[in-house]
Amino acid sequence: MTNTTQTTDASSISRLDFARTAPKAFKALLAFDGAAREHLDPTLVELVQIRASQLNNCAYCLHMHTTDARKRGESEERLHMVAVWREARGFFTERERAALALTEAVTRLADQGVPDEEYARAAGQFDDTELAGLLTLTFAINTWNRIAVSTAKTPGTD
After folding, report:
1. Which pLDDT value is given to residue 8?
2. Cβ 15 vs Cβ 4: under 8 Å
C-alpha cells in the first residue's frame, strides 16, 4: 500500500509527501544540508542551489532559492544571470564562478565526471573546509531536487 498525499496539476496521480512519509530520512537530510552551510557565505549557498536546481529542472527548489536569495538582498539582475554565468563575467566574482563551475560538474556527473581543472579552480578559491562544505552543499541540493521532482512538489507551496 502506498501513502499518496500530494496531487499534481499535470496528472491525477498522487505523490507522497516525503517529509511526512519518511521523517527520519527528511531530518537526516536537513542536518546534512545544515552542516554543508556552516562555513559558506549565504549568498554563495543560494547561487549554488539555484544553479543545481536549474540544471535539474526543479521548479520547486528554483522558486524557493530565488525567493530566499531575494530576501538576502540578491539583485534581480544577478538572479537572471545565474543560468548563463559563464557568459556573464561581470556579474560574479571568481570565487562564485569557481563554485558554480564545480556545482555544474558535480550535478552533471554523467557528462564527464568532475574534471581536474574544475576541481582545481574551486580548490584555488576555497580552503579545504569550505571546499568540503561546497561539495556537501552540492550533494544536498541535488538530493533535494530529486525528491522535489520525484514527488512533484509545486513551486510556491509550503
Report:
1. 46
2. yes
pLDDT at 127 (0 to 100): 98
Beta bridge partners of 15: 6
What pLDDT is recorded for position 3? 44
Q: Measured between alpha carbons, how far is 71 from 144 in angstroms, rounded to an integer?
A: 21
Whole-angstrom distance, CA of residue 43 vs CA of residue 6: 31
Domain boundaries, the chain: 31-150
One-letter identity of residue 6 = Q
Residues 6+ apart with CB under 8 A from 145: 52, 53, 56, 58, 61
Give the pLDDT confidence score for residue 7 in this predicted structure. 47
CATH of domain 31-150: 1.20.1290.10
